[in-house]
Amino acid sequence: MVSLDFRTRTDADIRGVSPGEFFGGELPALAAAHCDLALPGARELGVEPFAFVTPSGAWTVALAGDAFTVTPGDDAPAVAHCADDDVSQLVDDLVTPMTFLTAGRLRMVRGDLGDFLDWWVVLRALIDGRAVHTRGAVGFAARDDGPLDLGRSFTPADDDAELAHFLAEAGYLHLRGWFPREWMDEIAADMDRARPGYARGDGRSWWARTAAGEDRCVRMQYFDEHSAAVRELLASDAFARIGGLLEGGYEARTEGNRIEALDKPIGVVEGISDVPWHKDCSLGMHSYRCCGLTVGISVTGADARSGQLRVVAGSHRALVQPAFLRRDCDLPVVDLPTGTGDVTVHASCTLHMAQPPVERERKVCYTGFGLPPRGEAGDAHRRADDGSPREARGAAGPAGGSRRGAGPPVAIPAGGGQTGSAGNRHSREKTRKRGR
Q1: Which among 92, 156, 185, 429 is placed 20 to 30 Å from 98, CA to CA?
Q2: 211 vs 184, 271, 302, 358, CA distance in Å?
Q3: Is the Cβ–Cβ distance between 148 and 166 less than 8 Å?
């Protein structure tokens, strides 16, 4: 069997380092030890000096020739103001710049979110000893060592070893005709019946407004409580088969928010419905959780006109920014059109997005599988699940509240949401270069 267990940390590895300890001692040593892993990618990203300003002091990280430097002060084109604990949690991989953005507390007096994300990638390489992605670093091979057909889909008749290999290489699967249409028809009817029982502010649903002035419930959590057909599906051999494809003893969600039912309306102008490019670990904790498996059940099917899923093949194997997609990214973007009863599976580290429907609305359910804990759940996992340091959880709501489930969907405010002078000339030029 193949593995997608990328975890390198447990709660016992959380150190709570101070900014002075990290920038003053640890980071220079890590930069010397892991420079070869970060340097080629940093050059491709075109990183410029970046300053962290904290209550404990200010430090600027920079790429100077063939080395990374850390100097006191904030004389840099991009500057982020962070609490001391923000730096500690960034180092321990508990949060990312996207956490600050979605929580509404990203404070950049110069530069923009893109600068922060690029340096987050470089810092993760230096801290974790993992290479920054460079063009051509990720390839795709079939089991026979021939080229992998990234547009391939599978049926229940295909061999599990083929499915597992494709999932490990590409980071996603399209399973055709996995569940019977009759189940989908019943689930669609259950969604319509359950919807009046949800309300704005109930903590169990997401809402959006459309250009037509409608206030729509777009996501119903705990949907297994409202659908016998969904409960039967979650108990089926066909569903369990997905969780058994990979090594590691993946576990389905058995408590809390086990499955969510989504309606995808046309013309959303306010609220979170069609989430742009992101990894499910984009709010942090990649090294504690990934890879979980997110399973999308196409209740009504989808295509480019009705809200299909899109993925970036191989992005689960690449250290790239955890949200948004750079225009110069060399990894292939793949559309996943589905029919009624089809299933999509993607790794929690795979960049993906939902296209806004423009012609037909869509119904889909999301659930998933997660790796069993490596150790006793501690404070980091509890905080990640209850939302205490990651305020975005309150808005985004994990699609699987259990820490054993796949990661949460990410609520990304329209327009980026960063504060400060992100509109200066430097930021505009960098943004055009990145394609954000």
Answers
A1: 429
A2: 28, 12, 21, 12
A3: yes
CA atoms within 13 A on the CB side of 63: 19
- Go through 48-75 and write b for each residue having 16 or more CB atoms within 10 A of its CB, e for each that does not: bbbbbbbebbbbbbbbeeeebebbeebe
Q: Are residues 290 and 225 in the same domain?
A: yes
Per-10-residue mean pLDDT, the chain, length 436: 95 94 97 98 98 98 97 97 97 97 94 97 98 98 96 98 98 98 98 97 96 96 98 98 97 95 96 92 96 97 95 98 94 98 98 95 97 72 41 33 38 41 36 45
Please name which of 178, 123, 195, 193 lies closest in space to residue 342, comparing C-alpha atoms.
178
- Retrieve residue 397's tokens: 């709501």
3-state secondary structure of 197: helix
> What is the helix (H) or strand (E) element at residue 108, kind and residue range?
strand 107-110
- 29 and 121 in a single domain? The answer is yes
Mean pLDDT, all residues of the chain: 89
Q: Which domain holds residue 114?
A: 11-134+417-434
The whole-number pLDDT of residue 379 equals 55
Exposed/middle/buried for 156, CB within 10 Å: 0-12, 13-18, 19+?
Answer: exposed
Check whether residue 386 and residue 421 sit in a common domain. no
Cα Rg of the chain (Å, integer) = 21
Which residues, 6 or more positions from 271, have their beta carbon under 8 angstroms from its beta carbon? 206, 207, 208, 209, 218
Backbone angles phi, psi at 141, to 5 degrees: -125, 140
Burial grade of 157 (CB within 10 A; 0-12, 13-18, 19 or more): exposed
Nearest to 174 by CA among 264, 308, 11: 308
The C-alpha atoms of residue 228 and residue 303 are separated, in whole angstroms, by 27
Q: What is the pTM of this model?
A: 0.88
